[in-house]
Amino acid sequence: MLVPLARFLAGMLLAFSPLATAWAQVEPSLDAATTTEAGEPSDAPSEEQLVEARELFAQGLERVEQQDWAAAEAMFRRVLAVKSSPVVAYNLASALAQLGRFVEAAELLRGVLRGGEADDLTRAAAEQLQRQIEPQIGSLTIRLVGDRSEVELLLDEHSLDAAPEIRTVSVDPGAHRVVARRGGQELAATDVEVGGDASLRGEVRLNLPQSLDLSVKSSQSGQSAAARSGSGGHDGVDDDASVATSPWLWLGAGVLVAGGVVLGILLGGQNAEPLRGDTDPPVVRGRVLALEMP
């Protein structure tokens, strides 16, 4: 069973006296560092705040006796808001572990072990509790597929960095919800269960649509390229149509036709019939591309 520091110190017995031992340990840490090395007043809490912190800590120990872990958490958290203490941090971690909030509890314990303020007994208690809860911490791998620009990633309403395509985070056992948003609009969401009947190693994939701004720019770029390709450099009129409607072409054609008629008369004599046909140039209409304005 996960227990507060006082119980660990007393052989994990549920008795009020060992809890009082933990309170005796925390008092010096709450009173310490009220002045700087030069003797000047520091930002340490006032005496009134320290008195309130002691009362809150005592109330937290009472809630531990009653196994009211949520109330104990609230009390210990308020004490830590007044003054940092490895003993209080340990007791808060113990209450959080009882509530199944192993990730935050483990972080508090790592802080106790990293700092140099904890005595040997406190460190030993923190190490033991850490060994108990770390195997119960789950992990969730989140894969974002698609356009991640301007995406807000949320895990249980807590913001995460959406820049990496794949990221793995530690989570407590239970149900979790992953949501991706852009500009306040939900793009994708999924629910996942970690631990319990499911694996402690969860994985989710969110497919993200392309940003609207990028889609518009891509569409405009495609239309411009199509316009340039279709126009061939002649403002949307086909090259063949341009040539066909050239007055110089028809002038040359007229000369050739006239020359052919004269040549036919000279070769065939006076009785030769002239070539018949419409010598007026036909009306040739060029193909015009209907372009949409970008």
Account of the 3D structure:
Helix content is 48%, strand content 17%. It is α+β, with helices and mostly antiparallel strands. It folds into 3 domains: 131 residues, Serine Threonine Protein Phosphatase 5, Tetratricopeptide repeat; 75 residues, Immunoglobulin-like (Sandwich); 68 residues, no CATH class. Strands 3-2-5-6 form a 4-stranded antiparallel sheet, with no helix packed on it. A 3-stranded mixed sheet has the order 4-1-7, with no helix packed on it. A hairpin with a 2-residue loop joins strand 5 and strand 6. It starts with a helix and ends in a 26-residue tail after the last helix.
Features:
294 residues; alpha+beta; Serine Threonine Protein Phosphatase 5, Tetratricopeptide repeat; four-stranded antiparallel beta sheet; three-stranded mixed beta sheet; 7 strands
